[in-house]
Specification:
The protein is of the alpha/beta class. The chain has 2 domains: about 190 residues, 2-Layer Sandwich (Nucleotidyltransferase, domain 5); about 150 residues, ATPase, nucleotide binding domain (Nucleotidyltransferase, domain 5, 2-Layer Sandwich). The protein has 11 helices and 13 strands. Strands 1, 2, 3, 4, 5, 6, 12 and 13 form an 8-stranded mixed sheet that branches. Strand 10, helix 10 and strand 11 form a beta-alpha-beta unit.
Amino acid sequence: MKVIGLMSGTSMDGLDAVVAELDWDGAAVTMTPLRHIERPWPDEVRQRLHASLGPTTAGELCELDQLIGQASAKLASELLPADLIVSHGQTVHHWVQDGEAKGTLQLGQPAWIVEATGLPVISDVRSRDIAAGGHGAPLAGILDDLWLRGEHTRAALNLGGIANVTIVRTARPPLAFDTGPANCLLDEAARRATGGASDEDGRLAAAGTPDTQLLQDLLADPYFSLPPPKSTGREHFHLGDLPDLSPEDLLATLTELTAITIADALAPYAPVEVVASGGGVRNSTLLAALKRRLPITLSDERGLPAQAKEAYLMALVGFLSWHQVPLLTGPHVLGRISPGNSPLSLPPPASLPTGLIIRTT
């Protein structure tokens, strides 16, 4: 199958779209990445998305749901032909109470994608896991475990708005969880300081010095001491009132916060390799802070583009859901299907694959 994957992460900076060819090779799945498009949200949409994290209205959420669906439909159409589309949508709230995930909300009405392409669309890929008692996040463990299995413990690290990791261990189930903030606080600080979308390449952070007191205060957040599995979002990690620091020192402090909390979260597992992906790998200052603490490899070196890995994850999730493979918590197939113009005909149910083979064109 050719599957289009659409992903917009917690950074809320834009939409990633990929198309990949997926097939069965015995009990394993093969994935051939074919094309990746990255499209920033229009300024108005991005501003409205950030505003929706605070007090909002049903009308505003309805409008954003349609706008994101329309943008997703347009981008998916650029990657045709395909057999199936998987759309994650834009997360605007992840409801966690007393360590238990209660619900999650992603915007991006899939009907616009179906109407534009005529293809079946799988969406809402997190809710079934939450209903079954899971966290619905992170989903990356589905790909990471199949991809990185081996004789030694490895970890996959995604540097989105929130940083998440998957611990891949020999003869043990994978452990996936959110470590805390990555780009979300860095981008918010950069917007406050410069009006720009981000601290490009970490240049401001590189010119600053971490503030010891602020760093200690931030590290005292109780989320960091919770045991995994756990999940979080921008509703928890955002900048409130801050001490009077220069933009450079503030960004240097937040960069250290991200690097320290990721390293601390991975320390009990002592991975021999940490395969990094996500928008944060573009930030050379953050990447250098991580490399001082962890054995970092970029996912590009293993065949998956670092900037597009989560969109390829969506393509894989969709392929497995189409084949009715149960994922995450218990025997549950993720996502809901919006039929396309042709009659819906699913293949026979398949078993969980034994591995993921990345092939290059």
